[in-house]
Amino acid sequence: MKSSSTALVTVAREAMATRFEIALHGENLVNLRAAAEEALDEIQRVEAMLSWRKPTSPVALINARAGHESVRVNPELFRLLERCRELWEQTNGAFDITVGPLMRAYGFHKDGRQFTDESALAEARAACGMQHLQLDKAGLTVRFARPGMHLDFGAVGKGYALDLAVEIFRETGIEHALIHGGTSSVCGIGHPPDADCWKIAVEYPPGENADEPLPVLSVVELRDRALSVSAVWGRVFRIGQDVFGHVIDPRTGAPAQRALLSIWTSETATEADALSTALLTEGCDGVADLSASHPGSTGLVLAEGEESFEIRSHNIEWLPQPRKADAN
Question: Is the pLDDT of residue 327 over 80?
């Protein structure tokens, strides 16, 4: 544990349409502040690289040109694309950065359009799939094999940015830090001064009364590990009276409906983000498969049940909680 003279630095900045917050503990206040600002600058650099919304970003350039010609990218982005393809393979396609056409079809690209007829969705679905993303390692080029493809790093961009921030902390000698993006992607380095690990509370889904405090589902302990939480509420769209979350199964073209919430911890935030997204799509049955293929990781899925929530967990403890209606 650190002595009582340990300094605390907290900083925050908006990026990637969310709020990133950092808490650093150490002896050298100047070093802590410098590392925190450098990490936030790095997160914004990643946003400038991965955001399809920024017309000058490398990803926007890929989306605009790769359907017609091979597009050369820098080595960093090419390595990330390769890593995303590996994660796509490991999740049997449940995680897929080519889901962009479906995100647009359901209205999440906020261009004023939303297509929900079967033919439009089928066309969007046909433009998805990492098997249609051609990566030439020798030339560091990217090309789309199908028309209408569109890369969207929304399910993994925050995690990748956090991993680079963690690298900065380690390179500058920071031993104790907590950093998160929108509370759903979190990295814990070392431990806080008064505990052996960072403790992150994950809450149950919101009930009908939005003013009621949410009960705690699990308290996840992090020490040199990353946590990701995916859920179907927050960003939603409507079809008639039905409300669906923003996570789309790229294999079927339909919104994820097998789970309400998923938790995953890994050594890296990139992997944690990708696998929590995949787990939300796969539902309870996916816990065993992902935990078997990723030893050392932990995961949990919460889904609708007949009388209460159904929960499947791999090495994550959880607190039982009945439905709101049953508790009253």
Answer: no
What structural domains and CATH numbers belong to the chain? Answer: 1-51+154-190 (3.10.520.10), 58-144 (1.10.3980.10), 197-328 (3.10.520.10)
Structure tokens at 15: 């990026």
Q: Per mean pLDDT, which range of 116-120, 183-187, 219-223 is the poorest?
A: 116-120
Residue 183 backbone zone (phi > 0: left; psi -120 to 50: alpha; other: beta): left
Asked if the model's pLDDT at residue 267 lies above 90, the reply is yes
Distances from the Cα of 241 to the Cα of 107, 178, 237, 244, angstroms: 16, 40, 10, 10
Cα(185)–Cα(146) distance, rounded to whole angstroms?
32
Q: Which two tokens stand for residue 205?
A: 């889904």
- The set of residues, in sequence order, having a beta carbon less than 8 Å from that of 265 and lying 6+ positions away, is 220, 222, 225, 226, 227, 228, 272, 297, 298, 299, 316
Closest by Cα among 133, 84, 51, 100 to 248: 100
Q: Output the CA torsion 25→30→35→37 (10° steps).
A: 110
Between the alpha carbon of residue 203 and those of residues 31, 231, 247, 275, 282, the distances in Å are 34, 11, 19, 19, 20
**What's the pTM?**
0.92
Give the Cα separation of 196 and 90 in Å (integer): 32
Q: Tens digit of pLDDT for each residue in 228-252? A: 999 987 554 444 544 455 789 999 9
Closest CA to 202 of 26, 44, 321, 36: 321
- Lowest pLDDT segment from 32-46, 110-124, 210-224: 110-124
Structure token digits, residue 103: 């995100």
> To which residue do tokens 């056409």 refer?
101
Q: How many CA atoms lie within 13 A of 87 on its CB side?
A: 27
The kind and range of the H/E element at 324 are helix 324-327
Residue indicated by tokens 């997160």: 43
- Alpha carbon distances (Å) from 192 to 152, 240, 265: 35, 48, 19
